[in-house]
Amino acid sequence: MQKKLTKRERKVEILNMLEEQGSVEVTVLSQLFSVSEMSVRNDLNELANEGKLLRKHGGAYSKTSITQNNEIPLTEKQKKNFKEKDIIGQAAVSLIKDGDSIMLDAGTTTEHIAQHLNTTNDLTVITNGVNTMNLLLHYPGITTYTVGGKMDSKSFSIVGEMAEKDLKNYIAKISFISADGLTIAHGLTNNSHEATNISRILISNSQQCILVLDADKIDEPGIISLCPITDIDILLTDARAPESFIKQVEKMGVKVLIAEDILADKA
């Protein structure tokens, strides 16, 4: 842009861009407007509070590009930070032992865990994720349990009251859950009520809960509170996680693991 825009002009331009392309990124807008990323985040937060867009990790979506329940479509989530999610998935598998029972939600990061479970033996997996189920069908060393309920074609998951009731019948050694955001003040957050209900059951029905979360979701809250950080036992994230955030989480008694470090130790 030739001239530096005012805050009001930036907000108008952001809405125009959303109308044209459906989503915007903080880093791109910062460069485009020649302002700090913090200024862009403030612009997006103000527009979100005005009901004109939906915030996402590192940017925003137009309200017409998302589903009715404010959840970003799975196909969009799968594209975001694919490499980091796969590294986290590999690292998560190293925390699982043969003979374990685990729970996996329907998040895209937990789907990467499932992709790397092919070498495990005598493993029991409980999940509501459709893609995860399909993957595990091909692994002879795994017994998979799923639930009944409503099929959500946007998130490729089974949700609703029946699914929640079924899940409450299972208890596992470890649950691996995802979230749409994580902040010190608000803990784990999501953009879907139904996914939130599922995750809460996984937390309460497992001996240990591990949150698998790529670093872009740190300090980027969703709109629905899931649980405080202290409800989880371990945060497994990637090497981009801010050191200051890691220290704050550890002070709360939650262990933080960096996926790249785990894989380096195994190499």
Written overview of the protein:
This protein has 267 residues and is of the alpha/beta class. It folds into two domains: 7-65, Winged helix-like DNA-binding domain superfamily/Winged helix DNA-binding domain (Arc Repressor Mutant, subunit A); 77-266, Rossmann fold. 39% of the residues lie in helices and 22% in strands. It has eleven helices and 15 strands. The strands form four sheets. It has a seven-stranded parallel β-sheet, sandwiched between helices. Strands 1-3-2 form a three-stranded antiparallel β-sheet. Strand 5 (123-127), helix 7 (130-136) and strand 6 (142-145) form a beta-alpha-beta unit.
Provide keyphrases for this structure.
39% helix, Arc Repressor Mutant, subunit A, alpha/beta, 267 residues, single chain, Rossmann fold, 15 strands
What is the topological layout?
Layout lengths: L6 H15 L1 E3 H8 L3 H13 L4 E3 L2 E3 L12 H6 L2 H12 L7 E4 L3 H8 L7 E5 L2 H7 L5 E4 L4 E3 L4 E3 L1 H7 L4 E6 L3 E3 L3 E4 L2 H12 L1 E7 L11 E4 L6 E4 L5 H9 L3 E4 H8 L1
Parallel strand pairs: 4-5, 4-9, 5-6, 9-12, 12-14, 14-15
Antiparallel strand pairs: 1-3, 2-3, 7-8, 10-11, 11-13
Helix pairs in contact: 2-3, 5-6, 5-11, 6-7
